[in-house]
Each structure stands twice: as C-alpha cells, then as structure tokens.
Amino acid sequence: MTTGSTGGRRRLPLSLRRRAVPWERQRPTWRAARPAVIAAALKRAQARPSGNWYVVGASRALRGDRPLARTVAGQEVVVWRDAGGRAVAGPGVCPHLGAPLRDSPVRCGTLVCHWHGLALDGGSFAGWEPFPAHDDGVLVWVRLDAVGGEAPLDAPVVPRRPAPARALSSVYTGVGTCEPEDVVANRLDPWHGAWFHPYTFVDLTVVGSPGGPDTDGDAFTVDVSFKVAGRLVVPVRAVFTAPEPRTVVMHITEGEGVGSVVETHATPLGRDDRGRPRTAVVEAVVAASERPGFAVARGAAPLLRPLVRAAAGRLWRDDLAYAERRWALRSTGRFPG
C-alpha cells in the first residue's frame, strides 16, 4: 500500500511494505554476487584515467584562517584559499626548516609559517612549489603527478550532479586500514546491502550488473528501499558506476530524489607505524528533489548536514570493516575472491 497521488505523483515518497520478511528469511544474494564480476568491475575502474587527482576533503572545510591538511600517499599536502578565494595547494612541509604547515594560520589569503614567518601566497617561493588544486563546490581535489604517475588531466573526473541551486550536500570522512581498491570493491558489491546494513536497506534486488542481459554498459542497477520507520520505506532505483580508479558513484534514477548522487572517493594516506596502508573515505551526498518542501530542507541545511553525515558514518563503520577485512585477507594470500 502506498500513499495517494495527485496527477500520477505521490503526495509523500513513502511506501508501506506489505510482505516484510525477517532478515534471515530474505533471499540469499551470495550466488549472484559472483567474485569474478566484482573483480572485473574493479579492474576496469582501475584502468580508467584519474589524471593524478585525489580528493582532499570538503569544500566547506576550507576555512579562512586555517589550511585543510591531508597526507596523500605519504605526501603532506595543505590547501587553502588565496586572497581571491581560489583554492591553492602545495607541500605541507615548510621549505625553510620543515615546519608542519598544517598547523600554520592563513592571513588574508597567505599561509604564514608559525615557526619563522615564511609566507606563502600559493605561488612558487623559496623552494616551495604548488600543486594544482580544484574546488568543484562540494569537494577539494589536489593533483599529485609524482604520486599518480599517469598523464595529468587539467581537472578531475567530477561526476554529474544536481544543480547546486537546488541541491543539499553533505560530506563524510572516515579512515580505515586498507587500500583504495578495497573501498571501491565494497561499493562494486551492491548485493551486500540488505544483508550487511538491514537498519538502512531492505528489499534489495540487483536488476542489472556488468555482463548481465539487462545491463546497459558497465553499471550495477539496484532496486532498493531505504528504511524510514517500522514498515515505512522509500523505494528507489539506483545505478552504481566507477568513473575513475578511486571513485564509485550512485545515481538515483527512479523514485524519490531522482538525480541525487552519492559519491564515494578513496584517497590513499600512506602507511601507519606498523606498515599497514591507510585510506580515507570521503563520501559526498548531493541530494535533490522536485518536491516543494525540499526548498525548506535546503534552508535547514546547517541542521540537516550533521544528520546526513551521521547516517553515512553508521554505514561506513560497517563498510570500512568490510574493506579492512578484504585487505587483511588479500595481504596474507587468503582472499577467496
């Protein structure tokens, strides 16, 4: 049973599950989740160009008084806004005596080293060379040609998103002991959703996967319902694609929020003190809706963003455990996939 509709459109995006089944009685997905399909999709993603661009963090994290700092593949990086508001980036090590620039303040668009006052405006100076930076309005990227080793691109491969004027965006960041491929492989396995995340997903069916008869291109197409409360759910169709080696994007193509996207970006951080790889998951939710009430939601964005981040964090506590387990098995030659 669903809510009523006017002109063929539901007044509310909710449905009531008529035949809800217990978690243990849902249809097993392990036969459909063929390791070879996931591995082949991962391999194709890894072969796509990234242009050496890496996600550093959220655009909103670029404050006026401090740089945004991240270690990418062992390289200390700082990003800040110059006097014109443009994102600039470069090494996070002061060229004078090696001070950590992540701890230095920004004054009038200039990063001022807190050890001896060496000032950086984003241009080459005293042996400090900038990195190309890109602010797409939701995320900040940095290009590290020495790390990526690919032919550089002028800009990162940014997925298609709703127009900023009608969207609400939120960014979650988590860190796990794994490599980017383990995060990407997690996202290229949509079959685990209702089993591993029953608090969020129900009635999940993968209706198309790469190489399948009902698939258009290299995508995973999923019919799934997001739980709201009790038997109330929001059913949607979602399509997962990997536009570059460290990114998987989910587009909502049918149901509530058509055009909304969830971008999962995996950024290698480097090794910990035990020699294990560390990877940052930077997930951007860019939501849109044609419903009149969504304008109110956009107006309440400062209140809603923490809720969206909390929901993403709950999912990623599980999914990072998945990715970490995958890496642990791979690194010891025990991974069965």
TrEMBL record:
Keyword annotations from UniProtKB, A to Z: 2Fe-2S, Iron, Iron-sulfur, Metal-binding, Oxidoreductase
UniProt xrefs under InterPro entries: Cholesterol_7-desaturase, DUF5914, Rieske_2Fe-2S, Rieske_2Fe-2S_sf
Domain spans labelled Rieske: 53-142
Gene3D superfamilies on file: Rieske [2Fe-2S] iron-sulphur domain
Pfam families membership: DUF5914 (PF19299), Rieske (PF00355)
Domain of life of the source: Bacteria
Protein name: Rieske (2Fe-2S) protein
Organism: Streptomyces viridosporus T7A
